Amino acid sequence: QVQLVESGGGLVQAGGSLSLSCAASGLTFSTYAMGWFRQAPGKEREFVAAIHWYASNTDYADSMKGRFTISRDNAKKMVYLQMNSLKPEDTAVYYCAAARAVTLRVHGSYNYWGQGTQVTVSS
């Protein structure tokens, strides 16, 4: 049974940092690209970042570029999202996802999803 479990969310003040983790099980992790998406109340699910199985190829949404860093550890079957310089606009539920597709900015490309972790950034 494929499981993706996010952790690390919480409350942080603007300008602060959080590190999110996603633990994967039940899949051959190293063959999947991994992505992070987020969804704020009343908004569509939004692409945040993705990392290919070969790790050196990453992609970020423009608003996250320079502030967020995605990484993975295939041995531990983990993917991470380091978030710095957080803004109130970053408040959302953050989801981890796994894909075999190459169109990683599209949420429909992902096969599996975690349950999400709440990130709240106060002013």
In short, what is this structure?
This protein is mainly beta and about 120 residues long. It is about 0% helix and about 50% strand. The protein has no helices and eleven strands.
Features:
single chain, 123 residues, mainly beta, 4-stranded antiparallel β-sheet, globular
How many helices does DSSP assign? 0
Tell me how many strands there are: 11
Summed over residues and divided by their number, the pLDDT gives a mean of 95
> How would you spell out the order of helices and strands?
EEEEEEEEEEE
- Shape, per Cα inertia axes: globular
Major sheet size, sense and barrel closure: 7 strands, mixed
Strand proportion, as a percent range, falls in over 45%
Low-pLDDT windows of residues: none
**Whole-angstrom Rg:** 13 Å
Helicity range of the residues? Answer: under 10%
SS content category: mainly beta
First-residue to last-residue Cα separation: 40 Å
Can you give a write-up of this model?
The protein is mainly β and 123 residues long. It has strands at 3-7, 10-13, 18-25, 33-39, 46-51, 58-60, 68-73, 78-83, 92-99, 110-113, 117-122.
Question: What's the arrangement of secondary structure elements?
Answer:
Blueprint (H helix, E strand, L loop, with lengths): L2 E5 L2 E4 L4 E8 L7 E7 L6 E6 L6 E3 L7 E6 L4 E6 L8 E8 L10 E4 L3 E6 L1
Parallel strand pairs: 2-11
Antiparallel strand pairs: 1-3, 3-8, 4-5, 4-9, 5-6, 7-8, 9-10, 9-11
